[in-house]
Write a structure and sequence with these properties.
Length: 392
């Protein structure tokens, strides 16, 4: 039995171990059969036939890994190391996680065999000890196969084998980034779950529970604007208005600092901030917040001005209500509510005429009439009709 045949049997044995478990996954008719035949031929020493059959299987399903393993084994037996390394590298690329270590072992053995074949006694002094600081081709090939990996285990495997390797610093850096990304992903999933729970608590009036959840979530992910907005809802429900305003300002701040700011999120925060500031009696600051919401999300200007008119009406600020209502009307003339709010604000300045009739300020009757035109059966229609009847 010659050396080449003995090497072929050894390589075939390694290939068989790698392919033994789990069973081949049928990706196309005939693929499994070709791989099995190629593996049998490799074991029998028919490397040319094994290579032909495995290459047919690769052509049939290029994204499956097993045929690359057999082809690499056949090429290694024939001492076509560069091609064998290419096939083992492809196998490593497509192999499932459970098989990557085994495939990597084949690749490394192939590289070492190539190194041995290319090394002469004159090139390797007998007294020269092996050194981890020496960069071997095996290490270079391994690094090339994993350097763009998104799997932390690839870099962990490299560092176990080459703790002081030429690429150890790069591997540690890549590993740290992937582990940080995994931790961020885990925190994101947990924060999203807490957000959903807090939203339900706020809807049910469980503001204290929502506050506790979102306080924990914002501590875990302080750069997530939506968490700060939901925290503000809970704080507003608890009548903690200064805290709610602070949370909303934090939401705006962290979103503005993001790589890709979400202007609709900032607009939503500004809209809620306007509401909170009105309740705190800070009218000018509230108006500025609503203007910022419109600037951030101009397509929804009517909504923000409409909300501003509602809030100003609630606190009885006539001038601010009329101003916001006029802006809401300009943004969307077909919405009846701003006309009603304008009429309500103006009617508060009405006087009594000589005949006992109400003398409404200019624009009041017109606003009410427009409301009825747009919403003749609206929720305030009866009230508006009564007011118009009493107006002189």
């Amino acid at each position: 039995m010659n050396a080449t045949f003995r090497a072929g049997i050894a390589i075939a044995g390694l290939v068989a171990v790698v392919l033994h478990s789990p069973p081949l996954t049928p990706q196309a008719a005939g693929y499994n059969q070709l791989v099995a035949e190629a593996q049998a031929d490799l074991k029998a020493g028919n490397t040319a036939q094994a290579l032909t059959e495995s290459q047919k299987a690769i052509a049939m399903v290029p994204s499956q890994w097993q045929a690359y393993v057999v082809a690499g084994g056949a090429l290694q037996v024939e001492q076509q190391y560069d091609k064998a390394i290419d096939d083992f590298t492809k196998a490593l690329e497509y192999a499932p996680e459970a098989r990557k270590d085994a495939v990597r072992g084949l690749l490394e053995k192939c590289v070492k065999a190539q190194d041995a074949a290319q090394t002469t006694p004159a090139q390797t002094p007998a007294a020269q000890p092996a050194s981890e600081s020496t960069v071997t081709q095996a290490e270079v090939v391994l690094w090339k196969t994993i350097q763009n990996s998104t799997n932390p285990s690839d870099f962990q495997a490299y560092l176990r084998q080459y703790p002081n390797g030429a690429f150890a610093a790069l591997a540690q850096n890549s590993l740290a980034k992937l582990q940080a990304a995994a931790a961020t992903s885990q925190n994101t999933n947990k924060a999203n779950s807490m957000l959903k729970e807090a939203q339900l608590d706020n809807q049910q009036g469980k503001y204290s529970e929502a506050d506790q959840l979102m306080s924990q979530a914002t501590e875990m992910m302080p750069d997530a604007a939506l968490l700060w907005i939901e925290l503000s809802r809970a704080q507003e429900g608890e009548k903690k208005l200064p805290a709610a305003a602070t949370s909303l300002q934090k939401a705006i701040e962290v979103d503005a600092a993001a790589k890709v700011p979400k202007m609709d999120v900032e607009a939503a925060a500004q809209n809620r901030l306007g509401e909170v500031l009105v309740m705190m009696g800070k009218i000018a600051e509230s108006q500025a917040a609503y203007e910022s919401a419109v600037k951030d999300d101009p397509k929804n200007a009517a909504v923000y001005y409409g909300n501003e008119a509602i809030m100003m009406n609630r606190v009885g600020n006539i001038d601010a209500t009329v101003a916001a209502a006029n802006q809401a009307i300009a943004a969307n003339p077909s919405n009846p509510i701003p006309y009603y709010l304008k009429g309500q604000a103006l009617i508060s300045g009405a006087t009594i005429g000589k005949a006992g009739k109400i003398v409404a300020p200019p624009g009041c009757a017109e606003a009410y009439e427009k409301y009825l035109e747009l919403a003749p059966n609206g929720p305030f229609a009866v009230q508006v009709k009564a007011i118009l009847t009493s107006i002189q």
